[in-house]
Amino acid sequence: MWSFLRKRALIIILISIILLVSLIGFSIRDRDDVSLPEELLKDTIGAVQSIFQVPIDFVGGIFEDVSELTNTFEENQVLKSRLSEYKDLLYDVKALEKENKELRALLEKKDSDILESYNLIDATVNARSPEPMWMQQLSINKGKQHGVRANMAVITANGMIGKVKTAYQFTSDVQLLSGFDRNNRISALVQSNGEKENQQDVFGLIEGYDEEKEALILTIQSTDKEISKGQLVVSSGMGGVFPRGLIIGEIESVEMDSYGLTKVAYVKSAADLYDINHVMVVDRNMNSPESDQSEEEES
Amino acid sequence: MKHLFLPLILLILLVLESTATSLIPVQWLLADIQPIPHWILIFSIIITIFFDQDHTIYGLVYAVIFGFLIDFTYTDILGVYMFTYGLTLFIILGLKKLLHPNFIVTLLLTVVGICFADHLIYVMYFMIGYADMTWMSYLNDRLIPTLLTNMLFLLITYPIFRQRLEKWADEQFST
């Protein structure tokens, strides 16, 4: 009897190992379409999570408010002194915007022809993965029903934090910048800060995240261009899904790579990747290649 | 109605695990210290010790189901937590028969269970290519903080649930 039980346990363990390997194999490949049971399960858990999130946010909000009250006075002083500057700036921006619009009208360009234009979808973070280092993943409370699609950029007020990995009906998963690898690159450009006259915008690719330096890795093909610390890095909009001009971060240091063929710059991300509560999903107005394809199939 | 208590508690724990992660101080994360909440595992172990009779395996079944839900909601690799929690509870089930159910034994089994489960998770993620830390840094940065924070959780849950689980078990299995 005992040996029979032993044998049965052994068989069960063997079967579960086979099941494990096939499950890993199933989930590790890139899937764009999500099956119906997955969506149902994910949205159910998302609903439970959002119920719990309300009281927790409330309590956390009280603590944050109290700690912010202590340095309100100093902040107020600084902000007041800056206010007059902003008024001038606002006037300039208004005038430039108007001029820009008139020029665009002359060229007969629509909103969807402009790389920079996008709509924002507000969302709240439901949960962060309990594997904080190995799974750089968030889930947010907006999904396909609200217009979120896979691969859209996700930003906070300070800058880009990641992109939508999978969109379910009412929730979606976000891959953080710190979890990026070679499979999801961002086409970026280093903005010239206008100090020198011959300086130009430099294009590059964000290819991953250096965990030791805690910075994004930006590879630049053109080695002759000059790049200095503190320059702003924004998305270029050439990758197909992101609009142009989303702030990613600023250059921290520049090195030649080990073969001396490309330059590698380390970019400090502008947004805080650890303390995220409210995010915005960026839906760009210009058609992205994927949606073009689906339109062609329909027609 | 009472049958639903255990799955409901486990579901709440599943949700609270991610809330606990967002409460980890940022300084710890910047210093690469990562305590992982294994609350589902701990609660399943307590169920196995105080709720399960000799012929039932509720703890194991719940561990497998909720391990799968952890995989599904929080990671993009299915099966890792499910397999790990299942195997750990299987071993705990064997060890339970040799020992008396009291606090010291629960503490011991939890430490063994977490060490075993977290190592298995580390090895699996290492093989898939998600974790790229050496074993020494894994030990310092992940296993020890994980053990300490989870002991804290055990100290809170044990007094609350021990009597209740035994009472529920009496009610459920005596009829």
TrEMBL record, chain A:
It comes from the Bacteria. The chain crosses the membrane at residues 9-28. Residues 128-282 form the Rod shape-determining protein MreC beta-barrel core domain. The keyword Ribonucleoprotein does not apply. Keywords: Cell shape, Coiled coil, Membrane, Transmembrane, Transmembrane helix. The keyword Ubl conjugation does not apply. Residues 86-113 form a coiled coil. Gene3D superfamilies: Rod shape-determining protein MreC, domain 1, Rod shape-determining protein MreC, domain 2. Involved in formation and maintenance of cell shape. NCBIfam families: mreC. Belongs to the MreC family. This is Cell shape-determining protein MreC. It comes from Salinibacillus aidingensis. The gene is mreC.
From TrEMBL, chain B:
Coiled coil: none annotated. Keywords: Cell membrane, Cell shape, Membrane, Transmembrane, Transmembrane helix. It comes from the Bacteria. Its main location: membrane. It is a multi-pass membrane protein. Belongs to the MreD family. The chain crosses the membrane at residues 36-51, 78-95, 107-131, 143-161. It is found in: Cell membrane. The gene is mreD. It holds the Pfam family MreD. The keyword Cell membrane applies. This is Rod shape-determining protein MreD. InterPro entries: Cell_shape_determining_MreD.
